[in-house]
Design a protein that fits this description.
Elements: H1 10-15, H2 18-42, H3 48-58, E1 64-66, H4 67-73, H5 78-90, E2 94-98, E3 106-110, H6 112-132, H7 142-156
């Protein structure tokens, strides 16, 4: 048998596996939504990563997060988070605060201007999410989808809930 020889139908069966379809649809969905949301955010002078950081900080009790926790909860490295927070700080949307229990640690905290920016961005953001995502789910399915996504996220990114 040659290196390319295979049992009849085995590749076809693998390619038809619904798990491949599920992951492919998820990637296509995220890409499509990301493009629509990025255009809306650009209208408010924010990059998607900046919005994600602002949103995560705003949804955290005390509206401040350790930089390491921000990195764990986003797709950014610690140096990437530093660059994003630098830009947000330069624009007056966040401020850095020293960690009272670890002098090496730092928090990124939402400022009043950061709250104002989110207040301007969120209505349009939610409208897009409703139009292109949640309204397309069968009635009552959002809670089940959220539970499934959390289960999957916790498996593939267990550090994503750090600091929560």
């Amino acid at each position: 048998m040659t290196a390319h020889a295979r049992q009849p139908g085995s590749l076809d069966e693998l390619l038809a596996d619904p798990r491949i379809t599920a992951v492919g649809l998820l990637v296509e969905t995220v890409d499509g939504l990301s493009g629509k949301l990025a255009a809306q955010l650009a209208g408010h002078g924010l990059a998607p990563a900046e919005f994600e950081v602002l949103l995560r900080i705003a949804r955290t009790p005390g509206q401040a997060m350790r930089m390491t926790d921000l990195a764990a909860q986003t797709s950014l490295t610690t140096s990437g988070i530093t660059r994003v927070v630098d830009r947000l700080e330069r624009d007056g949307l966040v401020e850095r605060r020293a960690c009272p229990t670890d002098r090496r640690g730092a928090f990124a905290a939402l400022t009043a201007d950061g709250c104002t920016r989110l207040d301007a961005v969120l209505p349009g953001h939610l409208e897009l999410v409703e139009n292109w995502f949640t309204s397309r789910l069968p009635a009552g399915e959002l809670d089940a989808l959220l539970a499934s996504l959390r289960t999957i996220r916790d498996g593939v990114r267990p550090d994503a809930t750090a600091g929560a």
